[in-house]
Amino acid sequence: MSTMSWRILKVVALVLVLGGFYGLAVYKHAEREAIRQAPVVLTEACAEKLSRYGLAAGPVYRSPYMLQRTGLAPAMAGYSEEDVRAIQRGCNIIDDTQGRLASDKASERWNAPRFIRGTHASCNQCHQGVGDKQDADGNRLKGSLSLGASWVMADMYDRFTGLLLPFELRQMQCYINSSNGYKPNIADDLIRDVTAYTRFLSAALGLQIGTSYEEQGVDEIPASFTGKQGDDYIRGEALYKEKCQHCHGPQGHGVEVAGRLIGPAVAGPNAWNMQSRNYFYYVATILPGFICRNMPLGAENTLSNQDCRDIAYFISNLPRPAGDKQGPLVALQQQALMRIMPPLLRWSEAVMERTAQPAPQAPVAAR
Ligand code: HEC
Ligand code: HEC
Q: In angstroms, rounded to a whole number, what is the distance separating the alpha carbons of residues 293 and 205?
């Protein structure tokens, strides 16, 4: 072939490749736009919450929650049809991050599971009540990891990193560590929709920007809130077996029955990692606080501060994924522990059962 036709061929190939990329980008943009325009199928919890808060498109928004609580519902900025859909999608993402309830994960949840390594984590497991936990009378609860209260403190100084972290970055931390995954792009629709939803929550609840509310974060339990007996692994293990294991499984690996999550993993491959604020060795006050207020599910607020510290200490000693700061050696070690410990324990329990003799009966006369 002549050099001339080689050159033409090269140019054609280049144009084809670049054209291919361009075509792909156009296709992906169209796909995203179609998702943005599509009507949203709400999860049950979101349908209930958003209708209770009177979400609808219109020039002004008045909160039924505020009207009911204070007798006043001042006119606030309204929402466009597009805003409403973003808020609805954001709520769905919090309630069902893994898309277990979605008929099409890819479009209904913006592929959220691609940012999470395990199959359990969903924001609502920790940010309960779809990020807005209330008691039966509609009172917001202290230390309930409220996302609305968190939004009004956007750009808050973060006591752990020493940085001013905008709300988007704080979401990202939860993908990376509390959900043991990867960082979504700050401009991702996933982040934007959750921000839209949490901003709506703050409007519906009548929260004021820059005000610190007690429902933000966790009602933490420092060691000084106990009898200072120290955190006890053995007690923690016994309590875990008695009160938590039937839902969260042996070794904390979670319980799943026919695709339904009875309890998410609190340790093992599907759990939060060693850089999550839930991890006792990183922040010792958060997990005990969460447990005391929110667990055991259905019997909340029944454990003592000491119980919660002990259980949190025990859970945090079970093998779990390394975080982004521990490095590859620790990551490898944790993986090895997670894969080896549970089968080893099952095996040793089976051996013990097989070799167990019935307890000898003491002769009555000898007593
Ligand atoms: C395993 C529990 C857990 C999961 C799952 C989880 N989070 Fe969190 N989240 C926490 C904890 C703990 C904090 C830290 C609270 C603190 O620092 O006081 C937090 C903090 C946050 C904050 C900042 C709150 C504030 O007031 O500063 C945001 C925003 C957030 N999470 C969003 C999310 C989103 C979005 C998801 C789902 C992708 C998610 N979280 C999943 C436990 C969790
Ligand atoms: C009846 C079942 C049940 C019992 C008992 C129970 N949990 Fe849970 N737990 C759940 C469910 C379900 C969730 C997810 C939260 C939700 O959907 O509201 C959860 C969430 C959690 C979380 C946060 C999510 C995560 O992945 O870490 C922790 C931590 C936790 N439980 C610890 C405990 C501890 C400790 C006990 C025992 C004191 C306990 N749970 C007892 C069902 C249970």
A: 21
Instruction: Let me know whether 150 and 277 are in one domain.
Output: no
Cα 127 to ligand 1 centre (Å): 7
Q: CA Rg, the chain, in Å?
A: 25
CATH classification of the domain holding 87: 1.10.760.10
Q: Which of 205, 233, 262 is the last residue of a domain?
A: 205
Residues 127 and 258 in one domain: no
pLDDT tens for each residue of 315-338: 999 999 999 888 899 999 999 999
Instruction: Name the pTM for this structure.
Output: 0.91
CB half-sphere exposure, 229, CA atoms < 13 A: 14
**Whether 134 and 73 share a structural domain:** yes
Atom of ligand 2 nearest to the CA of 296: 41
Q: What is the pLDDT of residues 63-102, one digit of tens each?
A: 999 999 999 999 999 999 999 999 999 999 999 999 999 9
Report the residue among 128, 240, 248, 283 best suited for mutation to probe ligand 2: largest number of ligand atoms under 8 A from its CB: 248
287 touches 280 (CB < 8 A): yes
Strand partners, 157: 164
Residues 152 and 235 in one domain: no
